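Suppose a colleague, Dr. K., hands you the sequence of a protein chain of 370 amino acids and asks what its three-dimensional shape might be. Before reaching for any lab equipment, you can write down a predicted structure in token form. Begin with the sequence itself:
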Amino acid sequence: MPLKPEIDIENIPLSRHGGPDYAELQAQGLGADEILDFSVCCNPYPLPAEITHCLKKLPVHLYPDSDSTELKNEIARKLGIDSSRILVGSGTTELIRLLALVFFKKGRRVLLFQPTYSEYEVTARIFGAEINRFQGTAARDFHLEAAEFARLIRESRPEVVFLCNPNNPTGQYLSREEIEMISAACGESLLILDEAYHSFVTNPWSSISLLDTSNTVILRSMTKDYAIAGLRLGYMLAREEIIHAIRRVCPPWHVNIAAQKVGLAALAADKYLMTSLKKMRKSKQILVKNLSALGFRVLPSATSFFLVRVGDAAEFRRLLLKQGFLVRDCSSFGLPEYIRIGARTVPESYLFIWTLAKLKEKGELKIDGN
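The predicted structure, expressed as tokens, is then:
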């Protein structure tokens, strides 16, 4: 008799994310370089000189350092913390799976705020955890009420709490006081604070002090900030004993040498990051203003991405893809009436708005501004 999976595979949802579906594009005779991708929040500007120079001399004949020592030490220097509290990973999603490998088991209670990044639930299901949800509502623009969430934590006593700040897909950003309230409610529970989009907030506050006062793990991405999404790179900040435990289950060489070397180059490209993020904020303002003028309801966001109510998100996405634009259908977040848009360059944003206006003029675009 063939060997059967130990877990209920059919009960685990397929991961759905932004970015191009290459099979879909191929079926439509399109290449990824023929569309403008507004479905993700990544830096849309050309790579900085520091990275392009690095790419020309990658030592790909060498095995990578399994501990990413050089990159980890530079992250530690820039953040002002000890390198023993840092673990570099192949993107934050890998780090989530590694955390689950150490801390999750069948029946362990995990609390999620929704809508949020789908990999939290996917990972919890893989490991048989019991999932509890705190659901945001359209009436509140899917805003997380920190006091209510903290009360639920105290009442339900989950072992693990996931919190995305700023949240994906809403762009909501909780203040230091709100996160500290939630952290205090967690007590001995593990708070996994996902700050993958931290750089895209105009005035972010530093959560690093939480490592000294609570059982908190902080996750951050580097790929979105520096236009290197294809390399997969992120890092975890936590107490030394947590890092030690996660390090024991890491596969060898799990961060490739290209990601490590480019990551080092990226950390030296501060001017590029500041300049491009400033341009993205301007682009977002253009998008929000003109989408609202067309009659769409745009939800408030602290980041360069935001939700737009369009009525039928799947149909809206299909219509825009025919025009060469990709937007994020948020049905997989449980939001079938909304799309997510990430700001690109200013000229691309004007082209996007012009295309929508033309479709509206021709009667091909249905506006849902409720």
